[in-house]
Every structure is written in structure tokens, then in C-alpha cells.
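Async update (no meeting this week)

Hi team, since we skipped the sync, here's where things stand on the single-chain job. The sequence we agreed to prioritize is pasted below, unchanged from the tracker. I ran it this morning and attached the output directly underneath so nobody has to dig for it. Comments welcome in thread, and please keep replies under the output.
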Amino acid sequence: MKLIIFGASGSVGHKLVEQALAQGHQVTAFIRDKSKLQINASNLQIAVGDVLQIETVELAIKRQDAVLCVLGAGRKGTVRSEGTRNIIQAMETTGVKRLICQSSLGVGDSRGNLNLFWKYFMFGLLLRPAYEDHARQEQYVRQSELDWTIVRPGAFTDGVHTGQYRHGFSSQDKTTRLKISRSDVADFLLKQLFDSTYLHKAASLSY
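Output:
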């Protein structure tokens, strides 16, 4: 498939680009700084731009088969939500329908999966701006007319690519580890390209 990845130079985005290329997809990596993605492959194109500038986003999305959004913004900022809103607008303008968007475990009805530490200290205090940004991001995705899937991974680790993880568990499930490797997040995101199980749904993801 012809894929465009927003947030391609981030920690998950880098894994996503590598795995997508290995699977034979034609990949466009949308990044602000070309030097931050040191990957060379015949099936990789680099689109340098700012996700907050709708014109460059729209130009990059044209003629793609699917869009994968793994935008990051650290603990603060609104790049996730505002960038995702631009991506959605560009997709609706260009007619590209399939969107796979990474959010975070704990957002929306998955808040019930969190332990007290994550619920009240991490997302309630330390990471509250990031949590609220993800919540707005999900709202924009849900309000769109796209063929969307939201993926809510637990806390990222540097673990290896196992392909063995839990997904789609109940919002009341307290048995997950609330962690997953970046490589396995990328694995699950790519699997959604060929699986409609979570079409118009949010899938929680963890070990």
C-alpha cells in the first residue's frame, strides 16, 4: 500500500517506518527535520513539512491509500490534536479514507484500565496537558467521516518486537501491565491496515 506516516521521526514513528518498509509498503514519512530520520530505502519518500500547516499536509496526503498518525508533543502543547485536525481535513478534501491514529491507554472509556498511580498522578497531574491533548485528538477523529481506528497503547518501553500482546480488552480490565514496546505498537498499527475489527472503534493495547 501507499502509506503516509505523520510523526515518522518519533520513537514509535521510526519503528513504524522500518516495519512498513520491511513489509513492502510504499512509505511517505512526514517530518519537520529530514536529518532526524536516518533510513534509506527505495520505497521511502520524505515529505518535509509542518503538520500545523494545512497546505503542506494536504499536498503530502494526495494519492495515499492510508494515513497513520503517531504524532507526539511531549508533555505539553497541542500538536497532537491540532495536527490531527489538519490531517482529517486534508483527508476529507483529497478523498483518502483510512486513518489509523495512535492515542493513549487511559483516554476516554479506557480510563478504567488505569491504576491509581497513572490515573491520579501521571495523567491527573504530571501529564495532564498531554492527556487532554489526546482527548481532543480522539474527539476530532470520532467526529470525522473517515474510516478510522484509534489505537490506545500503554506506556512505551524499548522492548523487542514480539507480536504477542493484548488488545481490545474491556475498560474494566485491571490485569494488563499498562506497558508495551514501541515495536509492538508499530506492529499492531500496521495490522489495522488489513483488519476491520476495530473500524470506527478504539482498541486498547498492552501486555
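Quick observations from my side:
The chain has one domain: 2-206.
Residues 100 and 149 are 5 Å apart (CA to CA).
Reply here if anything looks off.
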